[in-house]
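Case study B.
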Amino acid sequence: MSLLAAVVGLGDDALVLGQRLSAWCGKSPWLEEDLAMANTALDFLGRARLLYGYAEQLGGCDEDAYAFQRDARAFTNLLIYELPCADFALACARQLLVDAFDVLHLEKLCDSADANLAGIAAKAHKEARYHRRRSAAWLVRLGDGTAESHCRMQKAMEDVWGYHAELFAPVEAEIGLVEKGVLPDRAALRPQWLAAVSATLDEATLELPSADWQVDGGRRGLHTEHLAPMLAEMQHLHRSHPGARW
Amino acid sequence: MTSSNATIPLETPEYAARLARRQVSRHGAIYALLDAVRDPELPELSIWDLGVLREVRDSERGLSVAITPTYSGCPALATIRENIATCLRGAGWQGFEIVEEVRPPWTTALMSRAACTQLRAGGIAPPVSGSVRCPACGSDETVLVSEFASTACKAHYRCRTCLEPFDHFKVLT
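Model:
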């Protein structure tokens, strides 16, 4: 895998999750949460723009072309980021898993042999710590809440759980970049991640899911049925009015 | 409305380093000019006091103004760029560029003490360590309502003493 492809993959992760989070604005449990979701979405959108900007410097296309002119098959985000998570419990479950991953992954990426990636990671890491604090608080609130919220939170965690494995499974082509010290070794992050997630689940009186199923394919452009409809909505304006400005 | 017993610590080493760089710069007049550029979402603050204005340097085109975003997705940065350009053009400058840098990342330690005072005067609890004090009555009996407020850089609090809701500019280290 080229450095360019790796940078675009990380950019796609951030963009797709940012788009999913932004869909909560106006639909959250209350106004403050609308703002929190939208602000978190902005952090991910900002991260995507930094990564796409770097991809352009590496000889890629511009940020709008990455975001708006590619079909689902060309997106290389991991599957966990594209899940609709239209139930708030699902959104909280997914967010805890990815925020806990982000904090560990970005911390390592700060030491990347690639100075640009290291710079972007240092910026994003500060935000990720804050995101994780918020995700953990929601998990505890819902998990250790009412009988109904506990049940739904447990079910949501089990529904999302099988998507976490891909976070720790580098595609074969990534391994060269890991050896050069450009990308962190994802697999090595899993024990620490599991410990952190388990501690939060414990505090939230939730069980660690026992599900042993897992799916992957995102980095190879093989997606769930959910990505294409999301892109259709996200890209509609740009594709209908190419080059439009306001 | 600012409480007299609410103390704001002295300048941080990070801010002191910025200030020292500014003071030895031969572009002192440009820095002074840019003091008029405010953050569009926090109009009480200049981009210098906020730490968004990083440095004014020489460049091939004449002048290079380096800025940094507070948060990655901060939508104010585009407006700040335009306002810097308008400010410099208004003073007769033509050959300049505005560059965005994320390295090293922005933290609240880059902000000036004046920024903290101005935030508090504007009803926003500044990013100082220790308990979050109500900017209206100075009480530290405050409670977090939401981790995010009207912008990414702020959290929403409520004072238990005077019952006023207020924004807290979050500490980012």
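The mean pLDDT of chain A is 95. The remaining cases will be described in the next quarterly update.
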